[in-house]
Structures are given as structure tokens and as C-alpha cells.
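Board notes (copied after class):
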Amino acid sequence: MVMPHLKHLNDKQREAALHKDGPLLIIAGAGTGKTSTLTHRILNLVKEGVAPNEILAITFTNKAAKEMLERVDVLLAKHGFDIGMRYGDTRPFIGTFHSLGVYILRAHANIFGLTKHFAILDKNSAGSLMKEAVKEQGLDSKQFSPDRIAHVISRQKGNLVTLDEYKKDVGNAYFPMIVAAVWERYERFLAREKALDFDDLILKTVILLRTHPEIRAEYQKRWKYVHIDEYQDTNGVQYELARLLAGEGKNICVVGDGDQCIVSGTKIAMEDGALKPIEKIQRGDMVYSNHGSGDCRGSRVTDVFKKKYSGNLVRISLEKGQEVVSTPEHIHFAGYLLGVAPQYHFTYLMWKQNVGFRIGVSQVYTKGQKKPVVGFAQRVNQERADKLWIISAHKNSNEARILEYELSLKYRIPTLPFVARKGASTGGYVHDQKVLEMIFSKFDTEKTGKELLLAYGLSENHPHHLSQSRNSSRRNITVTLCGDHRGKTTMHRIAMVGNDEQGREMLSSLGFSVRPAKKTSLSWRFETARANYEELVAITSIIQKAFGNINVILNARLGKQSGKTMERNSLPFLPAASVLPGMSMFDKSGNYITVQKVEYINVRNTTVYDLNIEHTHNFIANGIATHNSIYSWRGANLQNILNFEQDYAGSKTIFLEENYRSTQTILAVANDIIKKNTVRKGKKLYTKNIEGDKISLIENYNEGGEARAVGERIKALIYSGTDPEDIAVLYRANFQSRALEEAFLLMGIPYQVLGTRFFERKEVKDILSFIRAALNPESLSDIKRIIDVPPRGIGKATLVKMFAKDEGALSPAAQKRAQEFWEILAQIRECSLVEKTSKLIKFVSEKTGLEASLKTGTDEDNDRLENIHELVTLATKYDILPPEEAVEKLLGDAALASDQDSLMKNERAVKMMTVHAAKGLEFLYVFVTGLEQDLFPHRRMSGGVVSKEDSEEERRLFYVAITRAKKKLFLSYASVRTIFGQRQVNAPSEFLLDIDDRYLDREAGDSGHEPVISISW
């Protein structure tokens, strides 16, 4: 019998709501009603006798927390539970990780030498302190960017690393030593102001609970049931806070959308020589692993993952009977090596920047070479091309030639050379560079070349060959797994070479040591080795951001020492779908073994696995060395959700898969999009909603045409009776909003951009700074902000003497002004202790003279006054609390507010925002704009190799974008877009190629121009 209070839930939701004791993992896709499930779970706990204040629920945004709190209030009241005051301790605690940190730290601030009125620095204030720390350290802020140092420190704090721990691991590394020195000075500045930054709110809470068992026990006893939403987005410190609060009872329920990669295998070689089925492998097992250069010994398994998989698998058969089966995306180590590979003939696809693709044939061994080189690599050099993919490998040249002609005709890709031929004959068109360039300009090979790669299951991000660096026009970073074999320590290497002064100076400015490539050479070389592979990934990311256009070459040096060049010991990272006959792979001892056959097998509902191996990141599957594919290279750690079953023994997993938001068409496309991600918990969204309209794909000439096309369709929707607030326009990057806003203004479309936060507006920050300074007079950041707001004649020199308690050195007039300022703060503090929060805001605006200074009659000042009045209105919701508690709550909420909090529900306007900002929101009609390669998916560098994780994160973002739509989805792209002042011709997004044509209505956008690039199936 269904309980009345759960009758609106489906079976899976009800199962999750009824689960009471023990760990619970809920895998919930977009629109599957996870918030409803959580709120009814809380209701059910209370019905079973759990006190409301014994329940904790953590979400990632203030908006989500507010909505959940409101729903819980309504549910509990509806079912007869009186939970008292709106902000009373009788309610469940529902908030964000940061608000939870504020709550706990205010109660125990003295342990960290703070008062309960400690300031919380927003990003701008923290940035100012960081700039001051860099300056005080005597560093040039142009050479040592405060933002970059702040990013490093924030990442360390997010990974649970304190300053003292970081200093211990720095050693003699130059840039980390700089970071440590600046970090130490920054912490002194924070202590001086009795303030914490955002990262401290969680890190110090974890430190508190770790080092004070009695306090930890207090909160574990208080919150007997812990709920964490968006668990896949938790970083290290958030994960640890959840673990500490769950305690021994482990009554923890986490909700996440684990759409990311798992790999299959069979027999795994163990350290003791045994072979163990992968399904029997457990965390902590010691497997046989290659530590570099054929040094094979034990490595610990840190994680084991499994999932159900349906689709194609790749079976690779090798010369000695070995066979390894994996998903197409799984990374192996494979490549063609001279002296090892047999003779094979290739049909290849070659790409050259600013020209496009060409098709050709080559072979492993060619005649007449001055220096032995694999044939296709030689052709890339001859054509001065950038990348090459091998379409197929053949035993004879005729087969390769036949396929070359077939593909050339089918995909309209020339077989002509990029570079004019030289030789005795000079009259032909292949000897005329201008003719060749003209011919290539006639064909849209950028589009058709990518279609060819897609048809053969090849990855744009994993070419079989990349050209060598050539100064600023083409740069490569080479990262080598197990690339520096030193004794028993597994080391990984990164290297970059060049011969231009600009590149050398750029690397030096980033804090990296650059040396001459040879003693007398003008060329330079940067290289370093790390035991932690993740550190090399971080270094790579820093270099990519600085240089922009750069390729990353990934190799594994697992081969035995050959006595020849070290490069002979390495093979490139390659997806299984890109492995070809004749390639070499590593066996269990680091010897080369040749691929005989590669074939696809289709499976349904098969269990596939992946392992994560400590330090070496490789294991031996069926006698072949293969790569483990999961790394936590970002702040958020998807492994937290994938590891839940291992972290909490006896846990239960429930999949919420019925979507209540979108139509069948939208969900079918969403499922097709996300299934290409490889690190993911298996689930497929479904809905009982109607099939719905087809998805509109709008093709436009440029961003102006795109904006007009979107605007025309929005006007039609509004004229047909759709409320503007039911329409959203999403984009990948903030700069895209300009063209859209311009068009909407001209067309008279009401719109609201989700942008500057209410609490970041100057006058609002001024009011709050007055209150913070009154409660914490040591907060120099706040004092600096308001000392002369409105102008009262107190300059920098006076401020220094005021803080040095040297006011006697001031002139009588300056002393009077300083005394008046301190008296204002004292009166504000007194008011905050006795008056309601709304009255306090009025008092501050009047007493400080701020309101009077804004009564000038100008539009700008009128807007500022309206914002102060809005702050008073906002403050009334805190009036129910005791004054001191209310003001702390207001200040905390202001510091923690997110962009979504400024999205006013009642404003009748079309909503415009980034896809990131749209998470958790839903609208009847959604326009996803800018669906162009390098924009969405976003590339941090043009033409560069993007990590698998970044690529999958972009796909998840697109999945988020399209599942915001409840009724109708519009997708659009522009063939030409002006970015940073330069017009760029862009290919349509690769995501559009993943959408089956039967779900699409293709529409012309800007009627004045034909699209430069279109998509056809």
C-alpha cells in the first residue's frame, strides 16, 4: 500500500524516500525529480520520528537551497509538523557547503583567533589582498600574476592542503617557492583583518572537525541524517566534510548525475604472478604494473569501477594470441615503430591549418629516405601539415589506393598535395602553388573531413601523428607517463622545446626553468619530472592558458631499454578505436608485440570495468599494458560518486531515470549526446510526456544574424501568448550576450541578463562594509572601502595613523574627522545589537550620509538609491530573528550569494545566461546559441589537443543545456563570428553531428547570407 504522503512519487523515487538507515546513492538524471525525492525523504524521516533539526541537506547553490527549504517547510506544515521560527534551530539545516562552514565556524571562531563577527572576503576583496601580498613580497605582478597564484592556492585548499603542508612539499622548485611565500603573507593579512576567504570556510571547518573530536561528535550527534546534492561536483575538501559529518552511523544520502567513462577488461596480472578476473579486483589489491622502461612490479589499486554497457566494443588481437577487449574510447598505448612494425600500406587523412583536409596513401617503410622515418610522418613533413589520422591499414598498396579514391569522391576531399611538387616536370598543376590553393578553397573540407573521422570512429583529439614544433606558429608539449626512470620512484616527464625568444620569455615569466637545448644552440628546452602525474597536468594547463595555440602529445615510456634512443621505448596514448593492425603495444614485460587484427563486437547490457592504479596509471589486461582512464584533474572529483559504494560499505544505489521536465524528443537527443561520454554511471532518461516538437536547428551567417534569428522566433512566441519569463537564451561564454542584447533592444524584446550580483553593486557593498567594519573594526579591507564614502576628507596617510593607533600625530581637524568616523561605526554596532535588520540598513544609509549623497537627481544615483531601498526590503526577511543573529545571517548570505540568486522570478523578461548559470533551472522554451567548434565545445586553445576530461565536461554542459527545455528546444550556430576583434570561420559544433536527423527541423537563420558551413547527414 502506497503511503499517502508519498503517493505523488514514482516507484524509484518512493524507494529512495523510504530508505532510512545506512548509506544511499541516488543517481538522478536531469529533470527526474531529485528535489522532490529529497524533500519527501526528509518528510518521511520526520514522520518516522526523526526530529527536523537532526536532518542536514547540502546543495551547491543558494537558490537550490532556498527552494528546497521552502518545499520542506510547505510539506512539513501540510502534514501537521510545526517547526517553529523561520530561521530557528528546530528546522532542518538546508544550505550550501559554504553556509554550513559559516554556521560551524561562527560558533567556534575563537579556536582560530577570530571573533564570531569575522569577515568573509568576496572574490574582489580577496584579490586585493593577494595583490598586496605579491607587492609586499617584492614581486612584479606582471611576471607573477596574483590571479594565477590565487588560483594555485585555491586549488590547494580545495584539495585539503594547508600552507604548512604545501611548504613541506615545495623543495627547491622555483614557482612553488614563490607561491608559498605569497601564501604565507596572504594568510598574515587575513589574520590581521580577522577574515576568511571562501576556501577557508570549508577547509577550516574540516580542520576543526578533524582536530577536535568533541566538536565533531557534537555535530554528528546533532545531524543524524546527512544529504548531499550534486555529489559528483564535490572536491576533496567538500568530500571530507561530508565524510566527517556522516560519522559512524553513515546515514548519508548523496545525489548525483554520474554521466562520465568506464573500461572493460578480462584477466589482470597481480603482483604475485597470479591472474585475477577484473570483477574480483578490490581496492588495495597489488597488481602488476609497468613503472617505466620495462621495470614491472607491484602497484596498488586505488579505485575499482563498473557499469552496464551496451554498444560497440573493440577487440584487439595480437601476434602471440593475446586479446584485449575495451570500449572504443579507452586509452591504450599503441603506434607504428620502424624495425618492429611489418610493412603496411595506409589510407590517411591529413590536416593543415588554414587549408583543410586532404586524403592520401603511404606505408610504413619507404625508399630513398636520408633518415629512416615512418612513411606517413615523412608525408606530413613534406606537406608542412599539422595532423594526420590513419583511416585504414592494408597488406597491399592497391587496397589503400582504392579506398583513397572512394573516400575522396564520397567526402569531396582532394587527394592533391598541399605543397607544390618540385622536380624535372614543372608545367603541371601539382607544381603550381596558387592553383593548389585555389582548388582547396573550392571545397569545404573542414566539414567533410570531420564527417569522415566520425564515420570511422576516430577522435579529432587523437591524431595518429602531430608535426614537430615550429616556433610560435605550432607548439607542442610532450607529457610522458613513466618517462623518467630513477631507481624505484616512478617519475613522469614534461618537455617543451623551441628556438624563439618569445617562447623562452613566456615560460620564464610563468616561473619555469628554461635552458639551452645544446651548449652553443639558440634553441631552448623546458623539462621537468614529477612523481605525481596530476602535477604535470596542472603544469600543462598553465602553459596552455599562457600560450593559447598549443598541442599536447601524450606518450608512455614502458618499453625495455634498447641501448638506442630513449624514444624507442615510448608509445603514444591512443583510443581503442584508433588502434590498427601492424601497430606495436607493450606486453606484460615491456616488450613490443604486434597487433594482428582489430574488430568491433556489439554487446548489450554487458558489465565493463575500470581500475585506477596508484602512481603508474597502467595495468596488465590479458597480457597487454593498458592505461587507466580516470583522473581528477579538476576541482570537482567525479570519482567521489563513482567510489561511493566502496567508501560506504553496504550502500544502496537507486537510479532515477523518469524525466518529468522534457519531451521525448529532447530526452532522446540528450541520451544520444551523453552516451558518448565514457566516465559515467549508466542510466538512460525516459519520460511519459508527449513526443513533442522537433528540435529547430538554425543556421546563420554571423553572430548578428544569429541574434536576429533568435529574436524573431522569441517575438513570435511572445505574440502567440508565451510569457517572456518562460523563454531562456543560453550561451557558453559571457561575451556572446552582447550581440543578442543589441538585437533584443532593437526588436523591443524584454530581457534580463543573469550577470552582476545584487550584492556586488557598489552601494550595496558599501552598506554591508559599514556593518562589517562596525562589528569587526580590524577588517582593514572594509575600512579602506568606506573610510571616505561619502567623502569626509580622510586620506591614506590619516588611515595609516588611525590603524597604527597614532591619531595624536594627526592635525586637530583630521583627529576630529577620524573620531567622527569611529563614532559612526560605534553607533552602527549599537544599532545592530538592538534593532531589526531592515531598520539597521536604513540607519546605516542615513547616518553615514550615503543616502543623502545619492539624492542628486541623476539616473545613476537614483538607481543606486533604489538598490539601497531594495536592500532594506530584502533585509525584512531577517527581521524575525534576534538582531545579532539576523545581521550575521544577512552578512553570511550576502557573502555566499550566487548569480542565480539575482534571477528575479517575477520579472517578465526573457532570461539570458551562460549554460553554467542555467544548472538547476528549467524553461518552456530554450535557445542554445553559439554551437560552433572551439566555442561550444569550448577550447582553451585553437586547434589544440583537449583532455578527455575537458571534452567530456563540455559534453555534459551541452547535455545540461538541452535538458533545460520542457517543451521546445532551439539550437543555433554562426558560420562566421568575431572574437577578440577577429573574424573567424567556424565549423558547426561536433555535438550537432550526434543528433539524429529525424529529430531536427533545419531552418535558415539570417536570410541575407547563405551559411558558410552547413551540416548534412
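Comment from the instructor: The chain has six domains: 14-118+197-261+633-656, 122-192, 266-335+464-629, 345-459, 686-757+905-1004, 758-896. The first helix runs from residue 11 to 18.
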